Amino acid sequence: MPGLEGFNSAPPDELRPLLTECLAVPRWVDALLAGRPYADVDALLAASDRFADLTDDEVRTAISGHPRIGEKARTGGVSAKWSADEQSGVTASLADRLLAANAAYEDRFGHIYLVCATGLTGERMLADLAARMDNPPAAELRVVSRELAKIAALRLRKVLA
């Protein structure tokens, strides 16, 4: 599917799995499909952001398919490759610190720590995780929702490439 033209003209059944790999929220996928055709990439990304105002349940569902920062995805497929690329700033020397930080975060919030990791070093992710530990749980879910929207936008660009 080359570019936006291919995205606009592809059968919905062909796009649905790819969009689900970007953000596993059926309402978001359906809204993006229904909004076609998009005039340009910016219009698609604006729609993605507009529809990514997720409920708490949608956030929890969407993060359930993401690996912990510093871990490999448990399943294969395109999102596993994307996740590995996005987390390329995580080095093996940080593995123990990330494991401990992830465990503390999960104990506090009841879900994995999620950040749009593209371009971030492992040290920067650890600092971000530590800073977010003081968030109230409801506020942290909103932060995670914004991070999911960033990840979805990055992955949409990959779908178009």
TrEMBL record:
<feature type="domain" description="Oxo-4-hydroxy-4-carboxy-5-ureidoimidazoline decarboxylase">
    <location>
        <begin position="8"/>
        <end position="157"/>
    </location>
</feature>
<keyword id="KW-0659">Purine metabolism</keyword>
<dbReference type="InterPro" id="IPR018020">
    <property type="entry name" value="OHCU_decarboxylase"/>
</dbReference>
<comment type="pathway">
    <text>Purine metabolism; urate degradation; (S)-allantoin from urate: step 3/3.</text>
</comment>
<keyword id="KW-0456">Lyase</keyword>
<dbReference type="GO" id="GO:0051997">
    <property type="term" value="F:2-oxo-4-hydroxy-4-carboxy-5-ureidoimidazoline decarboxylase activity"/>
</dbReference>
<dbReference type="GO" id="GO:0019628">
    <property type="term" value="P:urate catabolic process"/>
</dbReference>
<dbReference type="GO" id="GO:0006144">
    <property type="term" value="P:purine nucleobase metabolic process"/>
</dbReference>
<keyword id="KW-0210">Decarboxylase</keyword>
<dbReference type="Pfam" id="PF09349">
    <property type="entry name" value="OHCU_decarbox"/>
</dbReference>
<dbReference type="InterPro" id="IPR017595">
    <property type="entry name" value="OHCU_decarboxylase-2"/>
</dbReference>
<dbReference type="InterPro" id="IPR036778">
    <property type="entry name" value="OHCU_decarboxylase_sf"/>
</dbReference>
<protein>
    <recommendedName>
        <fullName>2-oxo-4-hydroxy-4-carboxy-5-ureidoimidazoline decarboxylase</fullName>
        <ecNumber>4.1.1.97</ecNumber>
    </recommendedName>
</protein>
